[in-house]
User: Fold these one by one.
Assistant:
Number 1:
Amino acid sequence: MSTTIIGFPRLREFRELKFTAKKYFRNEISTQELLTAAKDLRAKHWNIVKEHGITEVPSNDFSHYDNVLDVAFLFNVVPSSVQGLDLSDLERYFALARGYQGEKGDVRALPMKKWFNTNYHYIVPKFEKDTQVKLSDSKIFDEFAEAKELGLDTRPVLVGPFTLLQLSDFEEGVEPAQFVDALVKTYQEVFAKLADLGAGRIQLDEPALVKDLSAEEKVFFLDLYRKILADKKGLEVLIQTYFGDVRDIYSDLIELPVDAIGLDFVEGKKTLELVKSGFPADKTLYARIVNGKNIWRNNYEKSLAVLEQIPAEKLVLTSSCSLLHVPFTTANEDFEEAILKHFAFAVEKLDEIRDLDAIRNGGGAEALAADKELFGTERVGRNAELAARLAGLTDADYTRLPAFAEREAIQEEAFKLSVLPTTTIGSFPQTKEVRTKRLAFRKGELSQEDYDKFLAEQIDEWIKWQEEVGFDVLVHGEFERNDMVEYFGQNLSGYLFSKNGWVQSYGMRGVKPPIIWGDVTRLNPITVKWSSYAQSRTDKPVKGMLTGPVTILNWSFPREDISIKDSTLQIALAIKDEVLDLEAAGVKIIQIDEAALREKLPLRRSDWYEDYLDWAIPAFRLVHSTVAPDTQIHTHMCYSEFTDIIPAIDNMDADVISFEASRSNLEILDELKAKNFQTEVGPGVYDIHSPRVPNEEEIDHTIEAILAKVPSRKVWINPDCGLKTRGITETKASLVRLVEAAKAARQGLK
């Protein structure tokens, strides 16, 4: 038996890659310096994986931005708008990811969407009529050769053709089938080049196989792979699946002339049942048994019990998915030992895979004994008062009265806002000065009085600027907040916070998800102080900004000793208390962000409601159900596909919903119209995840497109997300254009 992983974190333990990339983007280092730093990082990672006893080390799991973008770039799937720019290969790559605005042109970034049911975002490739699929990059070969020079015979990893086509956008009139022959040829070219370099096996990642597959999709997949596998160029081919089970395709999948198949025994409900029905003796099964998405220690006894039931003769133990979804190592944390021993980050998960392999081979007795002891004791006690509060909830606690249409009329009269009211999503740029002051306060180097004075000055400045520009509904800017989840978690019982638990969210952006350790209750008011202060500085309404319970849960590492439903309802009651305190303080517009609503939506439609939406949507309603009719509840969602859950979103019973739309070409609007969506909406009119400033006509055209689909009385004008990560100059320039475009659109309605 042997061991492997699907992929390893690439930001490094202290986000070294992020800071190096930022220097490159600021022209502080050369292209070669960026590439050299990345090469050094890859070498360190490969050696770590090897040193921890993993026998098959992957390569090409590294990326400068995103692995889906990497394969698109490898195969020349580059839109003509970028293809024609006089840029270097690396500049062109980053133009796809971040947009480009300079002397050589002006292009938007490609769309960005959630990577299945994770907190990671991928760049969406675009196939056009003139796309010529061909081998146009050498990254996968270069990195294999790099590892070879270090004495490592790695297994190159590449997103498979079926998942690539499933996740891509297509120009109107263009179909995936048009690219099958070219993709077959190009994947086989990759096989041949890797074989020439001395590779023995390639991993093709096909997580799209764990979703619901139509009969047509199954035929498409099988035809595609039969053609590719007709000539493997001497390589062994591993089809790797993850995030669920492959019940729709299993019987056909195991009959393909592949050499190995990876199956998920962590999230795959039916995986064990499927393999018990039979697994070919001539194929290797990569058993994904250690959770790659959560940070809790593996229960060896439970994992071993599963492994003992697997009939496969040739078995490789691996992580359930890439380890990029968890932090780097617990070695950089300062939790007390009684807590720390419950956690396994990426490096520690390597040890867990090695331990399980050793135990199955008659060793690892000490590791097994320690694990049994860990899971044999109760970790945390329960809050009886909270349990009683939850048990006492009735249907009335999830229902807001009066109904939406009546509330809408009441709020229209109360606020008297302009048609097409303008606002932002909440945060303003967190400058170096803001971050420095917050750090100094946290370290005790800045007094509470001086810190409060600084925050008040920031709020005053931005409230005044918003008034001058002409925004209808203002925000205070969230300068006191480090993160939209961590800030709340710091004021809730049951939460723990890592020191260096960084996880890649998109590109080079890292987030540090808090850890839900025990029962969650609110310790004290969280946002009232600065929201009510901001409201006192203006006659215009200022939104109170909160993070919703589903997002707090989904952007945390959740408990595994209770259900995520129960954990979310605990959080919902805490946020409900905050909503009512804001309302009592005179804040009459309250935004409860549910950016991550879709994060844990099951990948199979049959599980959507029973396993998730039937409790996630009521959890949101619980938060705002008892506010007054003239208190307006907003929510915000971003970077996921929401078109297929529109009725569920409408059922959240918010008064206004804003969402990302600029990078997804406003596709959601057609579905809103088709489903007779009642909630007022703020589709994002420009992309804040790119540093470029929208040109003068872009926002005008976007608003025009929105108004063609949604009645003007239902439309709000806002960016597609918060502005925390942007610079002040680009932010102000973009927002001035937004307000001007809204004013022009109002004139056009008269």
Note: The two ends are 74 Å apart (CA to CA).
Number 2:
Amino acid sequence: MLNPIKKTIALPDGREITLETGKLAKQADGAVELRMGNTMLLATVVSAKEAGEGVDFMPLQVEYKEKYSSFGRFPGGFLKREGRASDYEILTARLVDRVLRPLFPDNYHADTFVNITLYSTDGEDMPDALAGLAASAAIAVSDIPFNGPISEVRVARVNGEFVIDPTFKQLEEADMELMVGATYDNIMMVEGEMKEVSETDLLNALKAAHDAIKVQCKAQIELAEAAGKTVKREYCHETNDEDLRKDVHDKCYDKAYAIAKTGSADKHWRADSFAAIVDEYLETIPEEEREEKEPMVRRYYHDVEKEAMRRCVLDEGIRLDGRKTTEIRPIWAEVDYIPGPHGSAVFTRGETQSLATVTLGTKLDEKIVDDVLNQGRERFLLHYNFPPFSTGEARPVRGVGRREIGHGNLAHRALKGMFPDDFPYVCRIVSDILESNGSSSMATVCAGTLALLDAGVKMKKPVSGIAMGLISDGEKYAILSDILGDEDHLGDMDFKVTGTKDGITATQMDIKCDGLSYEILENALNQAREGRLHILNIINETIPAPREDYKPNVPRIVTMLIPKELIGAVIGPGGKVIQGIQEESGAVVSIDEIEEGGYIEVAASNKESIDRALEMINAIVELPEEGKSYKGTVRSILDFGAFVEFMPNRDGLLHISEISWDRLPDMAASGLKEGDEVNVKLIEIDKKTGKYRLSMRALLPKPEGYVERERAPRGERAPRGERRERPERNDRGPRRDRGDRGDRGPRRENKE
């Protein structure tokens, strides 16, 4: 017997979310069906009973999948089946993962899989904002240990008001959009983009989101209670020796503190020095016990190293590389670093370095997006690459990972708002991280800005980015500007902020501590603003303004607008005309139907090709004018004249009488042949039929004394109502005698 348990959550605008368990996927450790309107998500979670051998981390995997059938669509491609995850699905899964992962117990190491699937949608509500709630609810109704629940909401500011989980339509009108993940007590994750908003606006948005999340967390607690899942499973995934832990701390802490206090900017020296301390300690353990105790020693030493670094910052204000808390690492930047790309720049901050390139292309280079709910084309692209050599690792490159997609997306959101409107080119930025020691995504934002300016892109404003950190013991705290990789790993916060001189354009925050106050967040944002402005000054010194003109190897683009009714004439049957224009001119021609008409882009690396293509297009879209002269081609010869193509796809009659001032007995006397080029004048456009009358003689001087031959007058037609009546058949006289035709025999039968 089914015994479903349902819980309803009301959003501030009156919409309702329902959570239901006990119907679907009952063999999973936890499963919840979430509905809002016509949107339905199913979230499941399964966790192994035991940890894998030697695993000392949380092996969590979160997957988000949208079924094409949820929106009544077929997948593209030959197989017509859902394939690998799209960037959008990966980014949604990452948002959920970043909130869930820190809340599993530190000593819980069992393989855990969270799957969220979209089964129904109507294209109005945004399902990605509900994925975190569904996943957390599934964990809540399981026996998996978890320090939650959590929820995620999207908050947008529309017409000055904050809207929780806006619709697609509402989001189009928003000037701020954030995804916020939190427990009942603490914000854990933030990611979003804004149109140059203030730090105060951002904080107010976080507060509005957290208020809505508290309601959703409370509903999950009640759902778990109703399902009888308040008691979680017992586990033992770690073997511990408290005496050994104390011994490691006593013998290694002072040494680790001394290394942290040296303030060396060389991360490899620091890593080797910290590693030497634990290696030295392991040598003191009897060889027969060493293999068994080594994993515990290294785990305990990691805690010692973390404590030493944090106390050094909190007690003495000394960071690992010797900087002050507000100090930014030395920066050097250079533009036009590589001659081949249309724009390039190197941006180096400390031991983090990004080499960014910009490529400008035509409409044919647009990215086609065909997700379940998101369809369209993208004209501004940013790709982020993180090769292993950037951190000195010796391992192969295995394609683009989720981290690279996430970091690239953050940099893309930071810059796209400052991309010029109605820019004729498709633009692609590629950021290759050549060195990495913290904040490579923010280096990408800065390098991307420099490369765009070097390419001659007239950005609205330059953008810079900085990563902020936090060290807190509950009483004292220190906010760190421009954090190192170790400060990110051992600290309590990674808060990335990008913006112009006038406001924030994008942000990403991950918090690993409890009880982060809005006061600390406000201080972090203000400190970040100072850092952003410092970096912006360096960007402006490097390249004060965009390049005046594009580089010689950039394709030039000319745009034009034509009436809608002429789009077909430019394209031609099966694309024959537009292909012919491209072949003859050497230019790339594309055409789109927009509200105003046909939007044409003509691109080529040289002016001659563009001019030739424009000439051919203008000839097609130009309307014939009476009295205007044209250069045409004879297409056919008839007894009474010739048909001449005087404009593309437009033929006119050149009557034999209009070829010469002399009277020609026949067309042979004219000397015209098919394929001849002739100069003609359009002397008449028939108002009823639209046919064209052409003349050659009108362009020739009239002979002296020439007298126009008079045409025989036509008889006057009688008015239609006064036509002569037909005589009666009786008046026609006798019928002719046809003679005797004899017997013709029987009529043939129709055999069909």
Note: The first strand starts at residue 5 and ends at 10.
Number 3:
Amino acid sequence: MNREKRDPLARRKERHVPPGARSRAMHAMSARAAMGRFVLQGCVDCGEVTYPPRDACPRCWGELQWTDRDRGARVLSETTIRISTDLYFRGQLPWRMGKVELDAGPVALAHLHAGLKVGERAEMRLMLDRGGNAALFALPVGREPDMDDRQWREFVVPVKDRTILVSDARSAIGRAVVHALHAAGAGHIVAGLAPPARVADQSDGVSGLTRVQPVPLDLTDPVMVAECMSKIAGPLDIVINTARLVRGGGVSADGNLVEQRRMLDIAVLGFMRLAQASAPLLQGRPSGAFVDVLSAQALAGDSNFAGYAAGEAARHSLLQSFRHEMRAVGVRVLSVFTGPSDDEDHQSVPPPKVAPLRLARAIIEALEAGREVSCVGDVAVDAMDRWAADPALYMREKNL
């Protein structure tokens, strides 16, 4: 692998983010784009579909509602921007933009993939820029996006040739993530293994992989977290937090307080230790990202896993704050929600369950699609839909 070489005396290049001022309607679009949806506003009175987002219908001043729309479009014209006063775009020039006619109706200005030409059909995506705001991006139809396209890379997080830390590579999910990253061409994988070492570590296939560096890492130990970061040779591009401790028990009964305390230490304080230690390293990277694997139980309390659900909910809240902090420096923070995984932690939970390899592949897909929030498995998808529709009802039904 060709590792990046840097002059230790050279001044670090400053990383800027796109302009962040947006209307409330545009923030509403960004919230939906974060989940990979392609939505536009439609008038409930006259049916007019409109873009950019507005507070009222431009035709009849009626109420507008968000609706998922057809992603098809046709490129009408293109232009190349070569001069800009904005600090972010000055470092990205030249930059291709184009006018596209959406199948849903409106004509819009969009970022153009290098493989698109005027007159061609395009597939539209609502992508989040480095500042966390939605933008239209036009891609060639029927082809996988080319990761060599410079503009596309500004909206996604490539995995190939990157240095990636997996916080817990001993769990079933962590092992699957390491194997999936290796298959995807990650340049260097730092696999965290909490002591004590186990005999199974030598036969699980992770330690023997090329480009994988096992390191001791226990998120409950701040010294070990700091030492782990110091052992990473070269820049760090992506952190994937797979560390968790799953134990059952309620609040007033069946809850082992020693286990509950360790669960919260890993889920909450452990997450903060990892975030604080890795954030300075990620800030200087051109495509830095932090991925956290969350249980769908973060959305509502669970009387059978009360402590675990509380820890996941607390980390979910911390992720919102962390995401806001890192947007200012262009680092993406991704949440991947999952239902019960098919591992030793959920032996007593009936199907459906999520296979660890499926979850690992979904993490890579979320990175390479630039999707801020993902749900993996039927349980997580159903939980997110019900929570988004009526949080109070979902929390009540969850424990019936």
Note: Residues 257-283 form the longest helix (27 residues).
